[in-house]
Write a structure and sequence with these properties.
The complex is a heterodimer of chains A (362) and B (513). By secondary structure, chain A is α/β, with parallel strands linked by helices. Helices cover 38% and strands 28% of the residues of chain A. The longest helix of chain A has 18 residues. In chain B, strand 1, helix 2 and strand 2 form a beta-alpha-beta unit. Chain B has 513 residues and is of the alpha/beta class. Classes of the chains: A alpha/beta (362), B alpha/beta (513).
Amino acid sequence: MIRITHLSKTYGPVTVLKDISLQVAKGEVISIIGPSGTGKSTLLRCLNLLEQPDGGSIRVDGVDLLDKKSDVPKIRQRMNMVFQSFNLFAHLTALENLTIGPVRLQGLDRHTAEQQAMEILKLVGLAEKAHHFPDQLSGGQKQRVAIARCLAMRPEIILFDEPTSALDPTMVSEVLAVIRRLAREGMTMLIVTHEMDFARDVSSRVLYMDEGVIYEQGTPQQIFENPCKEKTSAFINRIRSLSWRIESPAYDLYAMNAELENFCEKQILPRQTRQHLLLLVEELLLLHGPLLPSTPIDLTIAYSEKKESIELVLEHRGETNLLQQELLPDELGLTIIQHLVQDIQCRRTDDVYRLTISLKSG
Amino acid sequence: MKKLLLIGVTLLWSITCCAVCLGQEKPDMANAAAAQASLSQLGQRRIGVLTGSVHDSYTIKHYPLATILHYKTPSDLILAVKSGKVDAAFYTHETLLEMLRHDHELALLGKPLFSVPIGVGFNKGNETLRRQFNDFLKQIRRDGRFNDMVTRWILQGNSEPVKVAGGKTSGRLVIGTVSDKGLPFTIVKDNRMIGFDIELAELFAAWIGKEPVFVDMEFGSLIAAVSTNKIDAIFSTLMITDEREKQIAFSEPYYELGASVFALKKHVAGAAVGADTHTVSFLSSIATGFRSNILQEKRYLLILDGLMTTVIISVLATLFGTLLGAVVCAMRMARQRVLVVPAKLYIAALRGMPVLVLLMLIFYVVFASVNINPVIVAVIAFGMNFGAYTAEIFRTGIEGVERGQTEAGIALGFSRTGTFVHIVLPQMVRRILPVYKGELISLVKMTSIVGYIAVQDLTKAGDIIRSRTFDAFFPLLMVALLYFMISWALMQAVEHVERSTDPRRKQRKAGRS
């Protein structure tokens, strides 16, 4: 139905979309997830040419949108869009918001258009608000009217651009319920969303976008339970991380501790966990201190909000690994470390030693 | 609405009544301060003169210590003396003589101080016409017609016009004059101009076989008008001075005008104070005022004419300005710099320029060599000014409609124009109406300056009446009331649009039914 090939878009020096290719079949519900500012909304807005792409092609049922001869407004009528900020026409009632398109663009007579609009308003549960103006509706109601406005045009595809991001948490579910219903009825939809659970239930396919490309895509099961790529996994598991590179023995431990405490506070980690983490970092650095003149040490602390687990990764170059070869100068330090951690893994790739340590929970 | 109007009118009335009462008391209080004056004491007092007249330069030279106040029309000058704003004023001796025949409040202060020859002014390039006039003047002096005119108009103070027999005419002779100069030279009587100058001009036009067309102007604009060929000749007791001769060419002098000083009779030493100090009741004085200012000589026709002109200029300028504003606004909001920069310049220039200056520029510079109806010039000038303001009003209105709604319209399948017409425009109109309304009313009032380019509008009509009756109260109040009515009617029209574009109206209607 939609075939996108090699689509790209830049804003001045910033590349927002890089060589994106995507096919959407009829009846598919595709969720697009990913961190903010990675081009999800831009992709959607390029699809109906609210943004002009810089390169590539977009074909809808074989018609090239970027061809100057194509009747773009006609195609937009078949491919409607729901916006984050609702964008209802403020001077029209809910009912008129629904009828203006069919009457002005599709030549429907007013009476038929109104009857049809009432049916659709009933569908989204807002028939009794038909004669209200947008500013008399709540956020959730506004977004449902906006969805109804799309439906009134009898589109084949609906593009949702973060439909719940501007809503109070209490109103999110009413909007999602309407979208779920549309999915059940077989509407083709592309949904940019931050509602992970919703994306997981409703989609037939999930795209993870990062850095302007479709980084990974697959069924909801693949993406949410078994992501292949690190960034996807970090995003899905909502991983926050903190990392340092230590290059000389004269490093500032106190500054590091302060940063670490700050990080723990932000993630609202329990007091005990924080203390364990501080202790662990200090002991690890003490142990690895002798290596410092010959190799820099990279230390990363990653906290997965979803799994509620903390992982430490320590990387250094060189031939030896202290823990493995038991060349430890300080027995006590090792005891402390072993007491604090659940699991230690050591792997060597090329000449880099990588130590992965998971902190005991609780 | 009617109630509101009633309140408005009552308020206006009560304010003016208060003003009149205060005005009546004032001269008495000033009496003690203003001691008996004579010419020799004029040195340190307040002296009124007509802007740009020979009296002006004479006063500056001879009374360096006096405070000189400039007035635009003779009627303003006389009012200034009567209301005590100045202690004495200079004016043409002949006109004063005529005036004092009817007015018992004023008196001359001594004999004429000096006299100046007057002539007809022509464009320097129009030597033929000037020579024709000189020949004509010689002839009427020879055959006694000139003396007859002097006798009738100046010596006897007659104000009956003599019908000038017009033969076949070819072409027009456009004559610049000032309708409120005062008798014996020019005055409006029975809604047409008469007087010595008018008769002279008519005779001359007939002599050269042309149809005389009189253009009533501000005195200060006459010279500019003849030097830009807006008019062919000035017949308006124009005194021959060196400065003026640099600008225009004069005919042979046809009369010597005296310059006299006049003041309130009770301030003039030696003048017999009349016994007409009996008080007239307020109501009867209003009735007399109404009769002499409105009914006599069918002066209401003058006011109606002026009213029509004001309404026509206002309405046409509004339409033109609104269209122009829309175009400038579209340019201002365009993406191409080539369009944005001129629009910005236009808005900055027009908003930074007094309308009067713009009006004169268009009339005397842009259309200098084009014979154009000054009403059209007024419509262009006020429209251009209005356009600069409405362009910005429109822009704020359009920018006030969130971009998201435009995007939603486009995403729904509307074209850019369709989105503007069906979604942005209805919301913009509602937003801008209150500001637009204010701008509209100030435009109506702004048109009161068109007298500068010889358009007889409502204000000018009031001025002409004042020049005859020397009464400030009635003509000014009448004019104020009429401006208020025009503004009120326009406000009603705009408010009607405001109501009919209110989307809530439908909802309320639906709610009631």
